[in-house]
Specification:
heterotrimer, A alpha/beta (302), B mainly alpha (220), C mainly alpha (242), A: 302 residues, D-Maltodextrin-Binding Protein, domain 2, five-stranded mixed β-sheet, 12 helices, B: 220 residues, MetI-like fold, 83% helix
Amino acid sequence: MTSLAVTAALALAGCGGNNDPLASDGGDSGSSSGSTLVVGSANFPENALLAEIYAGALKGAGLDVDTKLNIGSREVYLKSMEPGDASVDIFPEYTGVLRDYFDQSTTGTTSEEVYKELVAALPDYLKVLKPSTAEDKDAVVVTQDTADKYHLSQIGDLADVAGDLTLGGPPEWKTRETGVPGLEKVYGVTFGDFRALDAGGPLTLRALLDGQIDAGNLFTTDPNIAANNLVVLDDPKSLFAAQNVVPLVRSDVLNDTIETTLDKVSEALNTDNLGELVKRVVIDKEDPETVAADFLKQEGLD
Amino acid sequence: MVWVRDHLDDIWAYAVQHAWLAGVPLVLGLLLAVPLGWLSRKYGWLYTPLVAGTGLLYTIPSLALFILMPLVLGTQILDPVNVIVAMTIYTVALLVRTVADALRAVPDSVIASATAMGLRPMRRFFTVELPLAVPVISAGLRVAAVSNVSIVSVAALIGVPQLGSLFTDGFYRDFLDPIVAGLVACVLLALIFDLVIVLVTRMLTPWLRSDAARAGRTTA
Amino acid sequence: MNDVLTWLTDPAHWQGYDGIPARLWEHVWYSALALAIAAAVAIPLGLWVGHTGRGRFLAVNLTGAFRAIPSLGLLFASLMILGPRIQGDAGVLVPTELILVVLAIPPILAGTYSGVEQVDAAARDAARGMGMRGSQVLAKVEVPCAMPLIASGLRSAALQVVATATLAATVGLGGLGRFLIDGLAVRDYAQMAGGAVLVAALALLVDLAASMLQRVVVSPGLTGKTERRDTAKRRLKTRTAS
């Protein structure tokens, strides 16, 4: 019965008109004009914005591009780049966390170290291009009140008081090296409670502002930090290693056009202008596509 | 709602996707539920296990089913087929009981007369029993349609683009407009499905219409 | 399949604040609260609609409209609107309970008013003939006669609520949905599947409990038990008499 359903579904879906991921055929490393590139993004606004920037730049370079935004966490979307799946070709990534995803034994913390280790850690079917200076790191963030109360300026200051406090972060932080285990190992900070919320999203922000959590995981380019007077705790021991924005591309589709175009984008981006662009999308509620187009026009990349 | 006006084509594209993801399973589910219902009519003892078994399928959380589908089917993780197969399972789960009950409700006397007129079982099923069961099946289908439209939106959590994507987009940006637009669009879509099913049912049951008309005339 | 069994039988997963028993309890609590509220709203409303015959049009369309609202979207919307206005954990709990209540009302309301409506007119007539007033007719005759459909509505609502309470995890609350969301976040499919199995198992248990409750609550006169019992007694009497 199930196989009947599957066959029928496949047949109908096959001849249906919908966003079928037109992934380029595996094994074809050329820029075959027939295939469409697919740029994907994770499920947070900044990544969707970066994906739109990449897509816009590639379109400007004459390529056929499709976007698949807001897919999910890294654990989900990287699967779509695996050889057996190959439904997405390009992703805007961050050097540090991507490196950790493939190799947890690495120790580098500076941008150069992290990038080198990342290149070494990537499987054959993936390649990263030149990284940008634009960085968006994970951060442990507290309210101004909490920082004043416990005299917090860096993560290590939490070591004595964390036992009574609650940490909020994405579900994957429970087990990720750059999450709860990492805080313990590097700073000796063990929180009394951990609440699985979201990755620097509205749930974590709300819980932090509401006092349900005392410290939360937000991203450094998050405009809500400044808007709500929140305090980013310093990370002197570089638990959160460098997180430079870098394009991740499937080896099979990489070609010179893609490389030069995205390299130019990476050069044009820096932490400051990225922060500005993200603010327009998140605070001013502008469309990622529009903001991306404006940026590309400004930089002459459209 | 300035945002809605500016994004009408995005909303439309999502709506079309959504209609596809919710509608195809309705058809497939019905096609699968009818033979199952017929089986439970022919072999009475099958009724309970079939209805209970399919009912259990309905309780599997949609998020889990969407995620686990690629593992079972071997499809790509973002393939809409995952959603379609999962939704078909839910539709079958809802409809099997309805179809079985609808077929059981066909009076034995009618079946007897049909047999007496010389109709073989298959022909009798398609020309007599099934048409008479249409009103009840259609009621079940209407419930399934509304349920499907609602459940498909959950697929936004794994990145399948449809009206639910408006929910996640709005939520991540603390922006209410897309969410409200998505809610309204979903309700409208459910309404359209409902209307279509009602119209098709009326077309398939001309005897109900003429009965009513005749009743109206005699009292006049 | 093997992985799921391993995950389910791992003793580590049965302890602590995010172990199976804790999440199970949260899930039951979220569901039961929503059902109680929905029943408290829908049953009196349904009784009134069925008994007086007024407001039927509104009731039918309201249930239809409520059914059509996607739970995920409503959850996000109410969280964004109510969340900032309510302090603490309640700010997330109230929106979650709200959508579960909205989900549970249609089946309960529909079951109640259609149950009261289809009460045999003869029974109603007989009650009035015996001198009962409106409210007495309702309480003593209509409600007991409507019980099968009311119970069926409650049962259907219970199943839908248990299945949908998994959404609570998407907004940071607990419940069995936690295994789905956490498993998804780290691609631990065994955890996801385990969570799904647990939800299905809970739903099955709830359904069984509901059907047993249905048997207890529905008057034996309606299920035919009394009739069968009386017929059996009569047969026994005639057999022994001859």
